[in-house]
Write a structure and sequence with these properties.
With 90 residues, this protein is an all-alpha fold. It has helices at residues 4-20, 26-38, 45-55, 59-66, 75-88.
Amino acid sequence: MFTLKQSEEALKDKRRLKWACRRGMLELDVLFEPFVDEAYDHLSEEDKAVFRRLVTCDDPDLFAWFMGHKECPDTELQRMVDLMLARVKV
């Protein structure tokens, strides 16, 4: 069970993560921000760590991966890209 301090830390970390998800490209913002709001809390701890790593990548790389111009050479990051894209496909 979460203590109040753990809950506050998790909220603080999520605010930092949301700030890190604000990218310089609208195409990335519309993927990252809703993902953090709607799906991040449901990820396993391992997947949360992969997502936090993904957020540290450069925008041109992220854009290429998400738009399908290139595949990410890191299989864990590519899996997270695929997971995020699957959420927005109609």
